[in-house]
Amino acid sequence: MRDVAVVSFAQLPNTRSQDTRNEVEMLMPVISEAIEGSGIPRKEIGFTVSGSCDYLVGAPFSFVTGLDAVGAWPPIQESHVEMDGAWALYEAWVRLQHGDVDSALVYSFGKSSLGPLRDILVLQLDPYCAAPLWPDSVSVAALQARAWLESGHDESEMADVAARSRRDAKTNPMAQLSGDGDPGTLLKEPYLVSPLRRHDCPPLSDGAAAVILAAGDLARQVSERPAWIRGLDHRIEAHGLGVRELTTSPSTALAGRKAGAADVDVAELHAPFTHQELILREALGLGPQVTVNPSGGALAANAMMVAGLTRIGEAASRIMDGSAGRTLGHATSGPCLQQNLVCVMEAG
Amino acid sequence: MAQTCAVVGIGQTKYSATRGDVSMPGLLREAATRALEDAGSGWADIDAVVIGKAPDMFEGVMMPELSLADALGAVGKPMMRVHTAGSVGGSTALVAASLVQAGIHRRVLTVAYEKQSESDAMWALSRPLPFAPPTLAGAGGYFAPLIRAYIRRSNAPDHVGILVGVKDRENALRNPYAHLHLEDISFEKVAESPMLWDPIRYLETCPSSDGACAMVLTDEAGGNASPTPPAWIHGTAMRSEPTMFAGRDAVNPRAGRDCVADLYGQAGITEPRRQIDMAEIYVPFSWYEPMWMENLGFAPDGEGWKMTDDGSTSFQGDLPINPSGGVLSSNPIGASGMIRFAEAALQVRGQAGEHQVDGARLALGHAYGGGSQFFAMWLVGAAKP
Questions:
Q1: CA distance A139 to B157
Q2: Is A240 on the interface with B (CB under 8 A)?
Q3: If you ran DSSP here, which 8-state letter would residue B71 be given?
Q4: Which of A71, A320, B8, B209 has the greatest number of CB atoms lying within 10 Å of its CB?
Q5: What ipTM was assigned to the predicted interfaces of this complex?
Q6: 0.95 exceeded by the pTM?
């Protein structure tokens, strides 16, 4: 395998709504910041790939207009996954292994504000049996949370995650939600969908993010401390909620094993719901010594299709800023942690 | 450096207006099962799955890879979903190939599909984007002005589009998987069909199809061990350019020219018309055959129509184009690009049956999408590169 590193990361501040700003207007500042931060001239970026989802906009081909933000002239080598940008980063990493391309721009965007997200996400479910029943995304997560609690856990563990995430988000200027609520107070809040309270659920966010990858000598040349990707893997599980064990995440465990997810200092986990962070920690074998989601994670900002790529960007940033030596970025897709990606990065 | 990659399994469904007998997972599984059988593989031999389709809105299922994971044997494996507009079938194959070429996986299953009968693609294609100028005219409305510009520029005679409509439908009669089997196709019949988007007539337009196409891709050792002749990949390329840019030539797009130049460079092609034996290219409206002949370097600018007119692109011609019947005869949109790639591979494997081109050793698979702005291509050969 060729050495490939994250050398630059930029994101839009997460907000409840970007109002009338379209994809191009959201992406242009982020893409420019990531490219300028990498020191690689825009015209020399070898490959471009993005992640987004048409259903957030409610119109097909939303990535096509997004491409206009890249300045794709003369024509570029470019691709798109209808998935979280973390999978776009995976495609870029694969492409960089060929040897003829040394750098890549990865970007993603999502406007959750354009429609009723809880209902829109129902359309992810099996269209013949599950979707016609319209179980919304929070209710589906609540089923998982209930199963997890009944496997021997306590709601106070969930409240601890919420309180810590909001507290950590106070130092992240890109976060949407932050605060000092203590777990005891949080547990007195009413249920949104039992057993989930509002703070157990992610905010609805609009956002965009961009990452620059560089290989070998180019990475060393443009970055003093690149975040070298030491392992990158993703796995999917069965779709039906009745045919999988919702209290564990075997696909995360397998992807983590393949990516070498041991001995990390920091882990940025894409856990939109509090109980999911705890399931993921266990699947990855993260002990109490690992700092989890210092950015506040998806409980502080959860732009669809962006939050996973942001986790990798945040984990890479901890290496690039010198505060960690080995980190992990994780992304999830689908209902109840169906599909998971793990990216392990290292300094030096 | 990129590893050698080969196509060792191909599976297609019978394309038709409505496959009411199968669900979407059933449709994909049918193509995937046939590709695995062709490759002499089982589900357990597959390391990763890459799927592609056109926009989710075409069927109303968001991120369908999630609910398709079980049917494609992907549980416990990596699975990805590519979406690059009309070129998606080609791009999906290229992403799958890159997993082998990068040395990450040894055997990858790739599937592309569309089940248009569970949808209304014309509606989905006409949805306005917020804050963007709406076209509201479907694909034909978008491409008709570009075709008129081509005719004006090249002085092509009016009947060229009709010839393509007849040729591809005649070719489809040799392909059991083709959607349209128009036994009584004729020049008059195409010429007299209703004008939809001037100058595009009804019978110069692709149908709306259900269908899936699958391939098994493997590394050099896997290609060597294949029980049937593999198609070896000699080159892969993709290029994109913006939609909104006054400097672009949408009739003969630079992204297509750059893409094919990259491809020919990888494979050492200096005289494409002589060195390449046949091509499956993306022709959703008849006039795109002569237009792409120029874009792909088979004909000088302004002279692509002459290849159609003198029969060079016919089944018996010196450069047969779309012997399968092409997109004009079967158009499960998301799969259409992959079908071009798979048909090119079938030809160099000598397995195209009734529509086999004699002596096809090197073949081009081509796909395009968006406003003629996304391109994906591969060159496959009977011999190892």
A1: 62
A2: yes
A3: T
A4: B209
A5: 0.97
A6: yes
